[in-house]
Input
Amino acid sequence: MTRAPDFDDLVGKDVPDEERARLLQAHRLLVEAGPPPELSPEMDSVPWPEDSQMPLVKPKQRRPILLAAAIATAIGIGFVLGQSTSSSSSSSSMEAVRVVQLADDVPPGSIAGFAPRQVTKEGYVYDKHGRPTDD
Output
């Protein structure tokens, strides 16, 4: 049987009284509980497979992800810098050259403004189904 460690040797003499009383109570409880039980031989010699010691993700598998993240970050930073340093004071550098007003007339029988039309090509007239007519 092993001898219990001496409390004064473990803690020393320079501990405040309140702290010393708390540590002494914990020390007595630990000595009373005793050492932990020994492992059985079956649990002590558990074979570990080789795969359990290897990392889950290989470093080479992370390179494409890191490269894609770096490219996306560079594009984002470039976009933000381009927007913040633009010389134009307006929100867009594009300006309209001309504005065209669309006609409001919708022919009767049309569906959503699309009326059947006749199309001519090389002298032939085609109906709305793409068949040549005699017109």
